[in-house]
Amino acid sequence: MTEVSSLTGRLLVATPALADPNFDRAVVLLLDHDEEGSLGVVLNRPTPVGVGDILEPWAPLAGEPGVVFQGGPVSLDSALGVAVVPGGAEGPGGEVPGDGPLGWRRVHGAIGLVDLEAPPELLAAVLGSLRIFAGYAGWGPGQLEDELVEGAWYVVESEPGDVSAPDPERLWRSVLRRQRNELAMVATYPDDPSLN
Question: Rounded distance, CA 117 to CA 107, Å?
């Protein structure tokens, strides 16, 4: 098998050609990508369910909108917490842990996974933003690479603010618009091209 260049921490932005309704105009943050497969969460699918309805202790730390997001079609009964820890994420004594504060595991830069079994008080002082996702998007070995070859996804750099975008419904367009190449033009692609 060929060496897989890790895309962990990058965004997969659905191309207009992607036909799967689970990923129509989706923006997926890749949390893990290696030769064994890929796992990510869809950043722009808010649900009507409040964080307090399923994970009450974490509700005060959740960013706006304070709802659970549908992270993808796999394991909808499981929850993942993704949070940004700005700066050095210093501990209470001023120490800077090697990989971030207790209860948080760095994925890429300031973005990491939250241990939702940990007491929220452990992270309350250091979290910049928190999103809770029900389910995730997953790909087996080589599956995502095949989809990339087929032109289903654009791969772009993530920014910490993507995790907590206050208007998630506009994230697809805003991520494309900030690209410094022809992808910026794709942001103007109509919702329904048949109406043109």
Answer: 18
